[in-house]
Automatic annotation (TrEMBL):
Any one GO MF annotation of this record: small GTPase binding
Keywords: Lipoprotein, Membrane
Tagged with keyword Lipoprotein: yes
Protein's membrane topology: Lipid-anchor
Listed GO biological process terms: regulation of actin filament polymerization
Domain CYRIA/CYRIB Rac1 binding, residue spans: 18-68
Organism: Pan troglodytes (Chimpanzee)
Single GO cellular component term: membrane
Entry annotated with the keyword Membrane: yes
Protein name, entry field: FAM49B isoform 8
Subunit structure: Interacts with RAC1 (GTP-bound form preferentially).
Amino acid sequence: MGNLLKVLTCTDLEQGPNFFLDFENAQPTESEKEIYNQVNVVLKDAEGILEDLQSYRGAGHEIREAIQ
């Protein structure tokens, strides 16, 4: 992580940084595993919540009927 920050903040490079980061196949280290698992649980819950929000069609009709 330190090397990434070093490269991103370096202004001495004439052509810019030349490196590859594989985000798709990245795996947590042993020291990161506990936090990774906690975050993964939250993200899985968030996916369900996001799907529910995206499928919400509103209740305008029901509200108007209840008011009448």
